[in-house]
Design a protein that fits this description.
With about 120 residues, the protein is mostly helical. Helices cover about 80% and strands about 0% of the residues.
Length: about 120
Amino acid sequence: MSTATEHPEQIEHTEHADAHEAEHNGLSDKQYIYVALILAALTAIEVSTYYVDFGPFFMPTLLILMVVKFVTVVSYFMHLKFDNKLFTYLFYSGLLLAVAVYCGFLATFKFFLQKG
């Protein structure tokens, strides 16, 4: 009798572990490079707002780019896309709160800097 035989429970356990590991790994290395290139392009657009006059679209452009970059980094590099939805709601509610506070802060400065 050989001790090298595997029991069906062991085979099922290793298959389940492999499937579970593949489920939580997320993207391949090539896909991570694509995401990094997209983030670099978005950062280049943000930097270009300093050199190019965006006029009244300056602040909305920066806010939209900030939100897109936040969602991308949190979703892919922090693996939130592959995690529990509760964490997604927590992160996005924090983002909404931060944007609301920032917009309120900017509106306050605009309000107090206007001269009658």
